Amino acid sequence: VAHAHGAGPVLLREAVRALEPTPRLCAPSGNNQLLVMLLGDSGVGKTCFLIQFKDGAFLSGTFIATVGIDFRNKVVTVDGMRVKLQIWDTAGQERFRSVTHAYYRDAQALLLLYDITNKASFDNIRAWLTEIHEYAQRDVVIMLLGNKADMSSERVIRSEDGETLAREYGVPFLETSAKTGMNVELAFLAIAKELKYRAGQSADEPSFQIRDYVESQKKRSSCCSFV
Ligand SMILES: Nc1nc2c(ncn2[C@@H]2O[C@H](COP(=O)(O)OP(=O)(O)OP(=O)(O)O)[C@@H](O)[C@H]2O)c(=O)[nH]1
């Protein structure tokens, strides 16, 4: 019997879905559809992050590990233009890597998550970036996200550590919470803006810097720590 996230027998839903073929994902159908992929270790909160963005809800309770790959669509408005995001939620578990690798090359943007309460998930970010450089498009937009920022009492990775790592790799960084929704929408909007800017870049358009945009828009805390 396989185990989900090393924490008990595989739940029925996972067992059933494991028998299903990997879903066929649509290729981009035009300039207004963007393919975004969520990556990171198992348990960092990728599925919850996507559900929070899509439905404004948080799935608490039993953790059901994603099998292979899943996706959701959401339309956002960026500078007055409707953009359809097709967001692929990948399984963080090692045993599904060969499945998810196959999809990297189609993604225009990658949200790479770690869990601020889990040091291993942060330490593994370098390995994830190595995989990204091996399998993804060279000009893919990458954003580093330190998720579960609501769990301040269990924090083991300081915000500065996330910022330093992101700076080293030249990618924007945000701390997020799939539970409270902190910075969740901002992460997707920043990516959509960056991709739209790249696609429509013209000489008279003021230059858009995703890192400056994220810095100016982000919420530093999910709650009331400075009140
Ligand atoms: N407090 C808190 N818990 C979270 C947050 N995000 C996810 N969780 C919890 O973390 C656990 C794992 O979340 P998932 O979204 O299933 O993790 P995942 O990264 O999709 O895992 P895999 O599918 O195995 O790759 C669940 O029990 C969630 O309820 C968050 O922002 N804050």
Automatic annotation (TrEMBL):
PROSITE patterns: RAB, RAS, RHO. Keywords: GTP-binding, Hydrolase, Lipoprotein, Magnesium, Metal-binding, Nucleotide-binding, Prenylation, Protein transport, Transport. InterPro entries: P-loop_NTPase, Small_GTP-bd, Small_GTPase. The keyword Transmembrane does not apply. Gene3D superfamilies: P-loop containing nucleotide triphosphate hydrolases. GO terms for biological process: protein transport. GO terms for molecular function: G protein activity; GTP binding; metal ion binding. It catalyses: GTP + H2O = GDP + phosphate + H(+). It comes from the Eukaryota. Its EC number is 3.6.5.2. It is an enzyme of class 3 (hydrolase). Its cofactor is Mg(2+). The keyword Protein transport applies. It holds the Pfam family Ras. Belongs to the small GTPase superfamily. Rab family. NCBIfam families: small_GTP (TIGR00231). This is small monomeric GTPase. It comes from Saimiri boliviensis boliviensis. The gene is RAB37.
